[in-house]
């Protein structure tokens, strides 16, 4: 089941009575049915028992979550599959590495209201849902105190008041967790509130859901997205070309038809996409789906993820190799998030 999202806790001004027997939307059923058991994950992918102890240990730190639609893109029997490596915990997660911390971005100090992160000029990040449809092992929010950041109804009003008063804000970024893990009634309400703030121009949604459960892009979502007067940007999170199958391409087409500009951010991950051919194929594949590469992030030093690290030198070398092969508009910007800086830092 989906845990309660921050919006769940508070707002239900638009709640319609749900008649008994009403079926949940397909995407919610798929989310509820996601694999959350290390043994099931290993069995389904025909991995040897050698992988199980690491999976169980990592699962205890940050639970496994893999929807079927994503699992279907993983090659069974291949422990090095680049999609599997993003979701399968390894023993290496137990290693404590110097410099790797619980809150690498120091976000705890930039939350003027619960569920609101205001670090950059003109943009605010709203934690619209504490959960994700997939749990990525390298996630910099793997230790984020979501429960503490789940605002009550009164606190959401307080957040909206903050946004109404600060006329320098142009853009609301829905983030999480994954904001699209919240239900459409909640999102429709929130987006309507944001659209009513006259100094707001843009709505940005940072999400991995259309990638891991493409059925998330359904008529309800397209309804509230299409209705808002705000300009819309959807920033997807795709790390490897194998993540983009035909269902993902169709979901992207629907988002574009609703008026959204599609961008992608990736994380540079050792053993997954730290090779020029993979990154080139990723950019090409993204564009086939109507998505432009935006950021390529170096790993945030979050405890438990050091085994994914790629050195700055290697990262720069990869960018050079990409520049020799790709048109400029298919080049992602290689960046790092440095706590205290007023923007992402180019490498
Ligand atoms: C990354 C980020 C943004 C958005 O930055 P852009 O460079 O505009 O994509 C906004 N707020 C926070 C807290 C962020 O981490
Ligand atoms: S979808 Fe994003 S926020 Fe969620 S676990 Fe993956 S990287 Fe983290």
TrEMBL record:
<keyword id="KW-0663">Pyridoxal phosphate</keyword>
<dbReference type="InterPro" id="IPR007197">
    <property type="entry name" value="rSAM"/>
</dbReference>
<dbReference type="GO" id="GO:0051539">
    <property type="term" value="F:4 iron, 4 sulfur cluster binding"/>
</dbReference>
<keyword id="KW-0004">4Fe-4S</keyword>
<dbReference type="GO" id="GO:0046872">
    <property type="term" value="F:metal ion binding"/>
</dbReference>
<feature type="domain" description="Radical SAM core">
    <location>
        <begin position="118"/>
        <end position="330"/>
    </location>
</feature>
<protein>
    <recommendedName>
        <fullName>L-lysine 2,3-aminomutase</fullName>
    </recommendedName>
</protein>
<feature type="modified residue" description="N6-(pyridoxal phosphate)lysine">
    <location>
        <position position="344"/>
    </location>
</feature>
<comment type="similarity">
    <text>Belongs to the radical SAM superfamily. KamA family.</text>
</comment>
<keyword id="KW-0413">Isomerase</keyword>
<dbReference type="InterPro" id="IPR013785">
    <property type="entry name" value="Aldolase_TIM"/>
</dbReference>
<keyword id="KW-0479">Metal-binding</keyword>
<dbReference type="InterPro" id="IPR003739">
    <property type="entry name" value="Lys_aminomutase/Glu_NH3_mut"/>
</dbReference>
<dbReference type="Pfam" id="PF04055">
    <property type="entry name" value="Radical_SAM"/>
</dbReference>
<dbReference type="InterPro" id="IPR022462">
    <property type="entry name" value="EpmB"/>
</dbReference>
<dbReference type="GO" id="GO:0016853">
    <property type="term" value="F:isomerase activity"/>
</dbReference>
<dbReference type="InterPro" id="IPR058240">
    <property type="entry name" value="rSAM_sf"/>
</dbReference>
<feature type="binding site">
    <location>
        <position position="132"/>
    </location>
    <ligand>
        <name>[4Fe-4S] cluster</name>
    </ligand>
</feature>
<feature type="region of interest" description="Disordered">
    <location>
        <begin position="1"/>
        <end position="25"/>
    </location>
</feature>
<keyword id="KW-0949">S-adenosyl-L-methionine</keyword>
<feature type="binding site">
    <location>
        <position position="139"/>
    </location>
    <ligand>
        <name>[4Fe-4S] cluster</name>
    </ligand>
</feature>
<keyword id="KW-0411">Iron-sulfur</keyword>
<feature type="binding site">
    <location>
        <position position="136"/>
    </location>
    <ligand>
        <name>[4Fe-4S] cluster</name>
    </ligand>
</feature>
<keyword id="KW-0408">Iron</keyword>
């Amino acid at each position: 089941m989906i845990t309660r999202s921050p919006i769940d806790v508070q707002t239900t001004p638009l709640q319609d009575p749900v008649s008994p027997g009403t079926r949940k939307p397909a995407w919610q059923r798929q989310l509820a049915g996601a694999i959350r058991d290390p043994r099931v994950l290993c069995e389904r992918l025909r991995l040897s028992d050698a992988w199980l102890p690491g999976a169980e240990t990592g699962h205890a730190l940050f639970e496994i979550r893999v929807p079927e639609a994503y699992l279907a893109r993983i090659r069974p029997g291949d422990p090095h599959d680049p999609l599997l490596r993003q979701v399968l915990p390894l023993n290496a997660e137990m290693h404590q590495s110097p410099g790797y911390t619980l809150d690498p971005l120091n976000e705890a100090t930039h939350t003027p209201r619960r569920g609101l992160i205001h670090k950059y000029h003109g943009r605010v990040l709203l934690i619209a849902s504490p959960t994700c449809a997939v749990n990525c092992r390298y996630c910099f929010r793997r230790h984020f105190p979501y429960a503490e950041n789940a605002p009550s109804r009164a606190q959401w009003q307080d957040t909206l008041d903050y946004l109404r008063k600060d006329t320098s804000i142009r853009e609301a970024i829905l983030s999480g967790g994954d904001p699209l893990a919240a239900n459409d009634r909640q999102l429709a309400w929130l987006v309507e509130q944001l659209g009513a703030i006259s100094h707001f121009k843009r709505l940005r949604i940072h999400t991995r859901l259309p990638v891991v459960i493409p059925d998330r892009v359904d008529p309800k979502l397209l309804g509230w997205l299409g209705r808002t007067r705000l300009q819309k940007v959807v920033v997807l999170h795709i790390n490897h070309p194998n993540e983009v199958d035909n269902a993902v391409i169709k979901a992207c087409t629907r988002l574009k038809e609703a008026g959204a500009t599609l961008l992608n951010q990736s994380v540079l991950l050792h053993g997954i996409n730290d090779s020029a051919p993979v990154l080139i194929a990723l950019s090409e594949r993204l564009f086939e789906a109507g998505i432009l590469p935006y950021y390529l992030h170096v790993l945030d030093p979050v405890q438990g993820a050091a085994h994914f690290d790629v050195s700055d030198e290697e990262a720069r070398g990869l960018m050079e190799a990409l520049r020799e092969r790709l048109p400029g508009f298919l080049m992602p910007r290689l960046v790092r998030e440095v706590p205290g800086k007023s923007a992402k830092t180019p490498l």
